[in-house]
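In this supplementary section we document a worked example of the pipeline. Step one takes a protein sequence of length 257 as its only input; no multiple sequence alignment statistics are reported here. Step two produces a three-dimensional model, which step three serialises into structure tokens for compact storage. The input and output of this example are shown verbatim.
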Amino acid sequence: MDFENLIVEQDGFLGFVTINRPKKLNALNKETLQELHEAFTILNATTSVKVIILTGTGEKAFVAGADIAEFANFSEEEGANLARSGQERVFNLIENLSTPVIAAINGFALGGGLELAMACHFRIASENAKMGLPEVSLGVIPGYGGTQRLPQLIGKGKAMELIMTAGMLGAEEAKSVGLVNYVVPQEELLALAEKLGNKIVSNSAVAIAAAIKAVNANFEFGVNGYEKEIVSFGACFGTDDFKEGTTAFLEKRKPNF
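The serialised model returned by step three reads:
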């Protein structure tokens, strides 16, 4: 797959999406968002890809934010359309993807960059990573889901502090509040992402996709997450993966999903 601003690769069951705008610290512009939509749509439809790892080029930035020059002169309507389009086509798409997505945060993840990482199913970070939502320092608020996902992940009080102060968290503090799961030296970051990805690969992709939907249901307005879990649990009983998983357990062997 050839893209202008992304490097998209596959190694075994793992797909890799690397945002490749190092001169702009991998900032998100319109073209990059469109390419992210295309790349994740393609990888999700590729049956041999069981896990996707998202990262940025270089050692400085995962994604340093949005490309501010693109929207500095937008009207109110244009601003709302920018947020709506980005949320629907990229951020919500990733969050609800049936293929698990791991964010490997290799440096600055600010503004839209942190929002992109938060849309992934979980996050790991290098020791030099710094994360924050500095939008209020520009006279605007996070527009790609940041005001919703950050409180879900770290709690309302801490999220309010970070958003209102436009502050940043270092990697270890991000881990302590639950924003990232692991912190490692930068040279070990992708190796850890691959290790975690390969652990996921050994399990049922069908069950994992159902689990993603059930977990996300808890955060959807008007949706009963417990009922979604019950229905999804029952549906698993009709799958080949359930038959294989339980048979393998009873036969004391590893399942072949």
